[in-house]
Design brief:
The complex is a heterodimer of chains A (391) and B (366).
Chain A (H helix, E strand, L loop, with lengths): L6 H15 L22 H11 L11 H8 L8 H5 L3 H27 L7 H27 L15 E11 L7 E10 L3 E9 L6 E12 L13 E13 L4 E15 L10 E15 L10 E13 L7 E9 L19 E9 L4 E9 L3 E11 L4
Antiparallel strand pairs in A: 1-2, 1-12, 2-3, 3-4, 4-5, 5-6, 6-7, 7-8, 8-9, 9-10, 10-11, 11-12
Helix pairs in contact in A: 1-6, 3-6, 5-6
Chain B lengths: L1 H10 L8 H7 L4 E4 L2 E5 L4 E7 L2 E6 L4 E6 L7 E7 L6 E6 L7 E4 L7 E6 L5 E7 L9 E6 L9 H8 L5 E7 L8 H14 L4 E4 L11 H6 L5 E5 L2 E6 L8 H13 L4 E6 L17 H13 L4 E4 L5 E6 L2 E6 L15 E8 L3 E9 L2
Parallel strand pairs in B: 4-6, 11-12, 12-13, 15-16, 16-17, 17-19
Antiparallel strand pairs in B: 1-2, 2-5, 3-4, 5-10, 6-9, 7-10, 8-9, 11-20, 14-15, 18-19, 20-21
The chains are: A alpha+beta (391), B alpha/beta (366).
Chain lengths: 391, 366
C-alpha cells in the first residue's frame, strides 16, 4: 500500500539531512586547514567562513591523558564534553556539549510530537527524520567524545589521496537469523570510480539454500573532491545515491524488488575540532520503494515505502602511504537487509548497528570486513583486487 | 522518568529469539497439580487460576475447551468448577474416561461470563470436563468483535463494552494485544474485573508488547493464557500468535504452520499484535525484518487465510497483505493516532465456516 504521506513531507526529510550535514562550512577544504587548495570552485565561499572560525581555535592536538579517557567513558558518555575538559581541551569540550545538546534537542523536537500524535501517518516522515537526526548527532558526539581523548595516543589518519578506478572483491558472508534457514553466502562485488560518478554492484548468494541478493547502483558526488582525486582534501563529501535491488527468498517463496535514492554526507571532524583530526562523521537519509512478488496464485500489488537512515563515526586508517582505508561504527535504520531491525520489546522499530572497515594493503590488494547486529548477526569478509590503483 | 523507563524496557529483551521464553511458557498454560490432582487443559485454552481440594477456577481463553483431570486417591468428590470469561450460554459436560456421565449442577451467577457448576468427581479416576456453548459445533455464520490496545485507557474501557452491549449478535471479543500499559498483575486483574463488570461477552486475547514489560509477560500467562493458540468455533479457526517483538519465534511459526495446514480448506482468521507490515512504510511499525514479514504473509496467503487482524498501531487501517484482507484496529484508547478521524473503535466481523469473511465493519465508540 502506498503511504498517504504528502510528497512535501518526504522532501522535507531529505532536505533536513542536508542542512545537518553542511552546518559546518568549507566542505572541500584541504585537510590541513589551509584555504589555498579549494578542490571545488563553488565551495570557495564556504572556505572563507571556515578559515575565519578556525582562527579562533587552537590548531594543535592536546596531549594524551589517561584520566581523560576514563572520564570520557564515565560519566563522559552522559556528558560528552567532560573527557576533553579533563584533558584541558575546553574548545572541544564546549563544542561537544553543544553537539550533545543539539542532538537531545532534535530528539525532543521530533520525538515528543511523535508521541503526542500517536505516530500519525500525516506527520511521521518529517518527525521521524528529525528524531533520527537527533540520535545521529547524539551518537556522533558520544563517539567524538571518546575519539577526542584517545586520538592523541596515535598519529591521526588521513583520507586516501587516491583510490583506484576499479575494485573487484570476493568474499564470504555469515548470517545467523532465527527466522531464516540461510547461513553461508558467497559474495562478489565491484566498484568503478569515474570523475564524479561511482558505480557499485554486489551479489550475495547462499549456494545451498538459494537466497540471492543483487544490488546495483551508483553515487554522484555533488560536493567534495572525487574519490580518485582526494589528495589535499580532508575527504568531506556529499553524494546522491541510487540503487536497485533484487532479493530472492526461495525457501520462503517470494522475491523483493526495490529502488532507493539517498543523500549521503561525510564530514571531516577536524573541522569540528583539531582534536578530531583523522576521524569523520557520516549521515545518509533517503527512501526506498519496494514490491514483493509471490510465484503462483498469491498476489500482492502493494508498493511499500521505507525510510532509509544511517549515521556513523569513522576513522581514516592510512597515514599517506600505500596503506589506505577507513573503519566506521554505524547505525542503519533499514529493515530489508540481512541484519534487519532489532527484535525488541518495542516491536521492530530500531534498526541494526555495525562496524565496517575497508583497506587497501598495497596498491593492488586489500580487504574489507563488516559485522552487524540487528535481528540477525551478520559477518562479512572480502578480498579486494584493485585495478589501475598505482599511486 | 517514565519515558526513560519505557525506553529501557524497549531495548531490554532483545536477542536472537526474544520470544522464545514466552513460547515455552505457553506450553505450561492450563497445567496444574495440587494435592494429588492433576489438571491439563487441552491446547492451553484456559489458564488455571485456582486448584485446591474441591475447587477449580479457570479463566477461559476460547469459546470451547476441554480439560482432563486425574483424581488422586485422596481427592474429594464434591467440586465447584468455576469458569470465568466463559461464553454466556456455555454448558459443562463432565464424564469419566470411559464416557460415563458425571453428575453436575449449574449454579446461577450474576455476571454473564462467569459460570459455576457443582460436579461430582470420583477419587482415583480420570474425568473429562468440556465447556462450550451448545452451538459451538454448528456451521452457521456468526459475529465477533475485534479490539486491541487499551493500555492506559483502562479506566475508560467500560465505554467500549457499553457500545458492544448494543450488538446482541456478537459472540465474543478477539483482542490483539496490549490489554494494559505494563502487564502488571494489578493492571491485568483490573482489566479482567472491568471486563466481567462491563461486557456481556467474553474476550479472547493474545498478548502485546506492553504485556512483556513485566517479567516478560509472566503475569499474562498466569492470568490470561497463552500468547499463541488456536481454537475452532462454529467451523471457523481462530489462531492468535505472539508477535510482540516484531517477529514470530520459530517455535510459534511451526505451531502456526500446523494450524494453517489444519484449516487449509476452511475459514481461518489469524490475529497478532504487531502487524507484519505497516501500511505506512516510512513509519515502519511492523516486523523488524521485512523479509520475515513478507514470508509470513505469503505463507498465510498460500494456506488460504481469510482474514488477518492486528493491533499495535493506534488507529484503523484496512488494507491487504499478500492478498489477504487485513485490518489494524488499535482503537482501545491508548494514545490515539491524530489526524486520522477515527478515535476509539473496534471491528464488527461476520464470518462463516462455509463462506469465509462476510463483512468487517468499523464501529466508533466516541
Amino acid at each position: 500500500m502506498v503511504s498517504e504521506l504528502p510528497l512535501r513531507s518526504r522532501w522535507g526529510a531529505v532536505c533536513l539531512s542536508g542542512v545537518l550535514l553542511f552546518s559546518t562550512p568549507g566542505l572541500a577544504r584541504g585537510g590541513d586547514g589551509s584555504p589555498e587548495v579549494p578542490v571545488d570552485a563553488p565551495l570557495q565561499a564556504h572556505v572563507g567562513l571556515s578559515q575565519q572560525s578556525l582562527a579562533q581555535v587552537p590548531l594543535e592536538r592536546p596531549d594524551f591523558k589517561p584520566l581523560a579517557v576514563v572520564v570520557a567513558v564515565v560519566p563522559g558518555l552522559l556528558f560528552h564534553g567532560l573527557g576533553p575538559l579533563v584533558a584541558g581541551d575546553s574548545h572541544t569540550a564546549k563544542r561537544l556539549f553543544a553537539l550533545e545538546g543539539a542532538g537531545l534537542g532534535l530528539i525532543a523536537l521530533g520525538g515528543v510530537p511523535i508521541a503526542l500524535t500517536g505516530a500519525s501517518r500525516r506527520t511521521i516522515a518529517p518527525l521521524y527524520a528529525v528524531t533520527l537526526a537527533g540520535f545521529s548527532v547524539l551518537g556522533i558526539s558520544a563517539l567524538a567524545n571518546l575519539y577526542a581523548v584517545t586520538a592523541p595516543a596515535f598519529d591521526a589518519g588521513v583520507a586516501p589521496p587516491l583510490l583506484p578506478p576499479l575494485e573487484l572483491e570476493v568474499g564470504y558472508q555469515y548470517v545467523n537469523d532465527a527466522a531464516f534457514d540461510y547461513r553461508h553466502f558467497l559474495t562478489v562485488g565491484a566498484q568503478a570510480r569515474f570523475d564524479s560518478l561511482r558505480l557499485l554492484g554486489a551479489v550475495r548468494v547462499d549456494p545451498s539454500e538459494g537466497n540471492t541478493q543483487v544490488r546495483l547502483g551508483g553515487a554522484w558526488r555533488l560536493l567534495g573532491a572525487p574519490e580518485r582525486a582526494l589528495s589535499g582534501t580532508d575527504g568531506s563529501a556529499l553524494d546522491v545515491e541510487a540503487f536497485g535491488q533484487f532479493h530472492r527468498y526461495p525457501t520462503e517463496g517470494f522475491a523483493l524488488i526495490s529502488g532507493e535514492v539517498a543523500l549521503r554526507g561525510r564530514l571531516a571532524m577536524s573541522r569540528f575540532s583539531p582534536a578530531m583530526a583523522g576521524s569523520f562523521a557520516e549521515v545518509s537519509v533517503g527512501t526506498s520503494a519496494e514490491a514483493y512478488t509471490y510465484p503462483g496464485a498469491v498476489s500482492d500489488g502493494n508498493l511499500h515505502e521505507q525510510l532509509l537512515f544511517t549515521f556513523g563515526y569513522g576513522v581514516w586508517l592510512g597515514r599517506g602511504g600505500p596503506f589506505r582505508g577507513e573503519a566506521m561504527l554505524y547505525y542503519d535504520h533499514r529493515k530489508d537487509s540481512f541484519a534487519g531491525g532489532i527484535r525488541s520489546r518495542g516491536g521492530g522499530i530500531v534498526g541494526a548497528f555495525g562496524l565496517k572497515g575497508r583497506a587497501l594493503l598495497t596498491d593492488d590488494w586489500g580487504v574489507a570486513a563488516e559485522v552487524q547486529g540487528g535481528g540477525a548477526l551478520v559477518g562479512r569478509l572480502s578480498l579486494i583486487r584493485a585495478l589501475g590503483g598505482e599511486r | 522518568m517514565r519515558v526513560g523507563v519505557m525506553a529501557a524496557l524497549v531495548v531490554a529483551g532483545c536477542g536472537m529469539r526474544p520470544a522464545e521464553n514466552r513460547a515455552i511458557a505457553d506450553s505450561k498454560v492450563g497445567q496444574a497439580q495440587q494435592g494429588g490432582v492433576t489438571l491439563s487443559v487441552a491446547d492451553g485454552l484456559a489458564t488455571v487460576r485456582a486448584l485446591a481440594p474441591g475447587t477449580l477456577v479457570l479463566w477461559g481463553n476460547a469459546p470451547a475447551f476441554t480439560a482432563r483431570i486425574d483424581m488422586g486417591a485422596q481427592a474429594p468428590s464434591d467440586w465447584l468448577v468455576t469458569v470465568r470469561n466463559a461464553m454466556p450460554d456455555a454448558v459443562l459436560v463432565a464424564e469419566e474416561e470411559g464416557g460415563a456421565p458425571l453428575a453436575q449442577e449449574a449454579l446461577p451467577q450474576a455476571l454473564p461470563t462467569v459460570k459455576v457448576w457443582r460436579v461430582a468427581l470420583r477419587a482415583g479416576t480420570t474425568a473429562r470436563l468440556s465447556v462450550a456453548p451448545p452451538d459451538s459445533e454448528s456451521r452457521e455464520p456468526f459475529r465477533f468483535l475485534a479490539l486491541a490496545d487499551v493500555q492506559e485507557a483502562l479506566p475508560r474501557v467500560g465505554d467500549i463494552y457499553a457500545r458492544m452491549r448494543r450488538d446482541d449478535a456478537a459472540r465474543f471479543i478477539l483482542f490483539a494485544g496490549d490489554l494494559t500499559e505494563s502487564g502488571t498483575r494489578d493492571e491485568l486483574t483490573e482489566f479482567q474485573e472491568r471486563l466481567e463488570a462491563g461486557s456481556r461477552i467474553p474476550l479472547y486475547a493474545t498478548l502485546g508488547n506492553h504485556e512483556t514489560f513485566t517479567r516478560d509477560a509472566a503475569e499474562y500467562h498466569a492470568l490470561v493464557g497463552r500468547g499463541s493458540q488456536s481454537f475452532v468455533f462454529k467451523g471457523v479457526r481462530f489462531s492468535v500468535v505472539d508477535s510482540s517483538n516484531g517477529t514470530l519465534d520459530p517455535g510459534v511459526e511451526e505451531q502456526l504452520e500446523g494450524w494453517l495446514a489444519d484449516s487449509r480448506d476452511g475459514t481461518h482468521v489469524v490475529a497478532m499484535h504487531v502487524p507484519p507490515q505497516d501500511p505506512v512504510g516510512l513509519r515502519g511499525g511492523g516486523f523488524a525484518n521485512r523479509g520475515e514479514a513478507a514470508g509470513l504473509v505469503g505463507k498465510m496467503a498460500r494456506a488460504g487465510v481469510d482474514l488477518t487482524l492486528y493491533g499495535h498501531i493506534h488507529s484503523y487501517y484496512s488494507f491487504a497483505n499478500a492478498g489477504i484482507p487485513a485490518f489494524i484496529s488499535g482503537g482501545g484508547g491508548a494514545i490515539p493516532e491524530t489526524f486520522d478521524g477515527v478515535g476509539r473503535h473496534y471491528l464488527s466481523v461476520d464470518v462463516s465456516a462455509d463462506n469465509g469473511l462476510q463483512q468487517a465493519a468499523l464501529v466508533r465508540v466516541d
